[in-house]
Amino acid sequence: MYGRLVGRRLPFLYKAPEEGLKVSALCGGRNGLYLEGSICGIPCLMLVDTSANVTLVRTDLVQKLKENFICTAPNISLKTATGEKAEIRGKLDAAIECGCRKFQHRIYVADITDPCILGLDFLQKFNFTVDLEKNEIRTEGEEMPLFSASAEHSKLCSVLAKEKTIIPARSECLIQGVPEVSGKFRYAVMDFPSQVSQKGVLVAATLVDLKREAIPVRVLNLGNKPKAVDKGAVIATCEPVVDIVARPQEFSESLRLPLILENLEGLNEEQRTAVKELLQEFQNLFSTSDSDVGRCNMTRQRINTGNHPPIKQYPRRLPLAKKEEAERLVKEMVDSGIIEESSGPWASPIVLVKKKDGLTRFCVDYRKLNEITIKDSYPLPWINDTLDALNGSQWFSTLDLKCGYWQVKIQPEDKEMTAFTTGQGLWQFKVMPFGLCNAPATFERLMETVLRGLTSEACLVYLDDIIIVGRTFQEHLNNIRKVFQRLQKANLKLSPKKCRFFRKEVSYLGHIISADGVKTDPEKTKAVVDWPRPETLYDLRSFLGLCTYYRRFVRNFSAIARLLHKLTEARSNFNWTKECEKSFNSLKQALTSSPILTYPRTDKDFILDTDASNEGIGAVLSQKIGNKECVIAYFSKSLGKPETNYCVTRKELLAIVKSIEHFHHYLYGRKFLLRTDHASLRWLLNFREPEGQIARWIQRLQEYDFEIQHRKGTLTEMQMRSLEDPVKRVANIARMQRKSSEWKRTFP
Asked: Coiled coil located at which positions (predicted)?
């Protein structure tokens, strides 16, 4: 059971409304009966009121539902039994969920105390029966408990200061408190005692969990002098409230702001207070749940296919279990306002991909649509100019949007082009889906428009990566405020768990940004340093193949690698000696020296070389500058036990996917050259009806624009055999996956 801290409105912050009043009579009080549920996905307790002829929702609860909120003229008013009146602010058709059922109903918005009041109109429409003897409500055989705010739940308890605390003048601080009487409930601070109020000290609203050792109580000193709170003094009173049962993800991010405040290192108390006030002022800018996604009002995604006729692809047959999962995901997206029914001539198939956490990612295969789409040539920013502009700054903050693509709406006449089918019904996206080839250009144009006039001086943006800078603390604070105001005006939302504020050093675009300037992220050079010692001739050739390609960048490369090359000669036995170990380590040290790694240039195409061995995978990202190919970064990864059993082609595929994911911030949204020593991978994107892991890899790669090129080099006999029939080789992988799935279905 959790509680809600409720403090009084501060006198200097409170502004009485010119008309109307708070309808305090329209609340349950301590004798009301409440039902657990949600409105449009937002969990809340709903007061069941058989004397109310309409269903009401509190005004602040619908602020996140602006798209569905219909404002009305103030010509309708409510009247309570005591004669009080309250104006209706608006109305909306909402999805009300309680128990295992969901109901669509027209509700009215008003300034009431409770989050929601279920009126007689709702109860009669859906045949609800209220049983006061059993404290439950029933409809069509389903019984749901009602909770009372009276009796044992209304007992008050004092909260005592754990230790003596000095509160600075006109400042707020956290005081650790302990309940006077321990019990089985978790309490909520409802008010502060009069003796505290008389001292000019007020308690703010906070959600607390009394099962913790101490209760953090926010206390504000309104006076011009410091105030002392003695140990054992009563600082608040609390009472138990009913548990609110909700899906975990609904509150997964709602408490992120306190965590952000706790992670502000290196700030004094005055600076922390300024940051806290800023974040609280713009708290509506931060997403509170997975369904709390902004809807940008500044641009829409267009899909221009010229005069090409519509493309209709038939749905791929899904196993029964996957079909049920697909229908469930479709329903969730419908309820969240992401998709809607379609009646157009377009249709693309779907692919269900299992994520590492066991959940399912819903993907649409837009490869055919992307082929006929006229590409948007809007340029992405120059990464090197972006990094150079950061020099001289002392403070840094990075921002990340919540489901950035889903905050951009689709042009109404183009929605039908995003249509997909699961075999039952045809659906289309209302927002920009993942997988469209022009999505990066649309998003970059949007972000540059939103932040126009602030870039270079206050902030920099590359797609959805925003960094805010400042030479002084106050300048940085002002710059954050300016960016917040722009994002708020565009109706964009941030993901609090991915934002970093007021740092002296941050990671941005694969670099470490600090007051000293720009330096390479140590994770890049660590990939080469951690390359495992070769155990076989094939492992050594893979390593040397990766290194030899860049021998022109290493002084005395031939001398360093001589012993290793000699070991790869056909007539030699693989005998790893101390001299080989020394040569191996020296070569790695030479490859990771600073002169090799250069800044990326967006006027040059990226080149990604990948390779795989029996023990690991690796890659080198480079660009051709002049007549030389300059290394940008390295990547390597050891293979897990299941991955070591992959065939050569599958390992090479894994190397490509993992390398592209690792260098996502460089490669996403621009064309690049992918070089590999395995020619069969050139047939990767031509697969029809991919399944399992292959489907997941293709779906991930279709977001990128690249050309596969075979890198010539010495091949082993095993590699030569695999190149004889590359299509058959890769097709065997899909065939084995289908057999594995059939085996699991036969013998679960």
From this structure: none
